[in-house]
């Protein structure tokens, strides 16, 4: 089975990218299913179901969505095997830019939109920098100059990535992305696999429900800001 992670900030068009791409893959990669990870709520599962794709949803709720993802992705593969899928696409939103859902040996895609600002590629951390493919959406809405600068900054942030321009309305770019999806590595399971980048190690009191502010309530792994010499 081929497993592909698709990540990116909210509302960049990840679901449209997936739907347009898999429509062109029919019959070439076997049955395709989707697992949708999100933080609090999602309606994307209904969109995938309407497109005829088997889908399961995982909501992190009060947990860190990044840790929720990595704690459940192997079980998602088991679900996909029971469904006899040929391709499992794990779409994740709600991840902080500090994290990355990409797994060694698994095709990792990051979706970003050109409307987010030309400096955004530098602000998105491992999710973009450790992706195999970076898909740029909404490039038709910005100027040619902005589009080129944005793509340059993406390539600067991740020189090894394949950059694909994608139009979520027309499907332009779907054929190229579909080609890469069809070449994704085959995997039997994810137990023992490694993330490409470690997730935050912090376990602070606010992770476990603390709501009070002040040093008396800050224990564990807490990092404080430096304000220099306040006398100046």
List the helices and strands and how they pair.
Blueprint: E1 2-7, H1 14-23, E2 32-38, H2 44-50, E3 55-59, H3 65-82, E4 87-92, E5 107-113, H4 120-123, H5 126-129, E6 133-137, H6 144-157, E7 162-166, H7 174-182
Parallel strand pairs: 1-4, 1-5, 2-3, 2-4, 5-6, 6-7
Task: Walk me through what this model shows.
The protein is α/β, with parallel strands linked by helices. The chain has seven helices and seven strands; from the N terminus they run E-H-E-H-E-H-E-E-H-H-E-H-E-H. Strands 3-2-4-1-5-6-7 form a seven-stranded parallel beta sheet, sandwiched between helices. Helix 1 (14-23) packs across helix 7. The mean pLDDT is 88.
The SS-based structural class is: alpha/beta
| Strand arrangement in the largest pleated sheet | 3-2-4-1-5-6-7
Apparent shape? globular
| CATH-defined superfamily | P-loop containing nucleotide triphosphate hydrolases
């Amino acid at each position: 089975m081929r497993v592909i992670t698709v990540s990116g900030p909210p509302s960049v068009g990840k679901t449209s990218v997936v739907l347009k791409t898999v429509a062109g893959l029919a019959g070439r990669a076997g049955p395709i299913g989707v697992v949708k990870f999100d933080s609090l709520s999602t309606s994307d599962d209904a969109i995938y179901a309407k497109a005829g794709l088997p889908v399961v949803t995982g909501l992190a709720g009060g947990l860190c969505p990044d840790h929720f993802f990595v704690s459940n992705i192997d079980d998602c593969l088991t679900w996909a095997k029971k469904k006899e899928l040929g391709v499992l696409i794990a779409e994740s939103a709600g991840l902080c830019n500090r994290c990355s859902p990409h797994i060694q040996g698994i095709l990792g895609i990051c979706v970003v939109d050109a409307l987010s600002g030309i400096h955004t590629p530098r602000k998105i951390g491992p999710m973009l920098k450790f992706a195999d493919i970076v898909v740029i959406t909404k490039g038709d809405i910005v100027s040619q100059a902005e589009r080129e600068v944005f793509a340059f900054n993406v390539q600067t942030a991740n020189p090894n990535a394949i950059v694909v321009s994608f139009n979520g309305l027309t499907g332009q770019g779907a054929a190229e992305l579909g080609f890469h999806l069809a070449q994704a590595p085959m995997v039997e399971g994810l137990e023992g696999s490694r993330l490409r980048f470690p997730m935050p190690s912090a376990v602070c009191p606010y992770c476990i429900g603390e709501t009070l502010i002040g040093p008396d309530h800050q224990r564990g792994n807490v990092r404080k800001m430096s304000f220099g010499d306040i006398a100046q």
